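Friendly challenge for the regulars: who can give me the structure tokens for this chain first? No prize, just bragging rights.
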Amino acid sequence: LKEFLKHFPKNLEDSKDSMNWNTVHEKKITATPLQIKFDDKIYFFFNLLNSYYFLNFLQQITDIKEKLIPDPYFWGGGLCSVKRGGYLKIHADFNIHPKMKLNRRINVLIYLNKDWKEKYGGHLEFWNREMSECQKKISPNFNTVVIFNTNDFSYHGHPTPLLCPEGVTRNSIALYYYTNGRPVSEININNYEHSTQWQNRKNLKEVDTVKVEYKKVFGKFYVKKKFKS
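First reply, four minutes later:
Bragging rights claimed.
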């Protein structure tokens, strides 16, 4: 990872192909290995994380019965950089890959922040299903790897704006892994295929939790429906 860090772009937002997210839900800069020309060592590392050897490792430690499948498109994943004031509000991830139509099952997050101080914030938070309490916080320190199951109720994020100095960024790598099908217990039957599901922390009104769903009736006709999560 030290070698990888040497080649992590100093200013990811300077690339015309990076994505600059600035909404009530998230404030961050992202890029995938398919969008920007990186050093070969970065490509090598991503290929390793999508290899049979790493998939086999994930299969063993997660005990998922269905065979894990990597994402060659890096949809929603890749490199992420968050500056002072940035955040990612609590959410459950999109659950179906838009191209491969597979079920998203595992998130792998790797943090690249040397000398990260506790006062900077940016802790990854895991909240319970009722959104009544944070059950776990993880500091984004260098060489910290977080592997967790993602489903319709795995609420997580780093919701408090960063307090790091100007010029310091919270850098990470994200990769996601999929299966063809998943246990029924992990599915919200009222919202089978959905995008990111944003949540408010207890006693806070941080995001709009009204969702818009388009239900296909026949042919090219859809019914638009709004609902609260």
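DSSP finds three helices and 13 strands in the chain. Helices lie at 2-6, 40-49, 52-62. Your move, everyone else.
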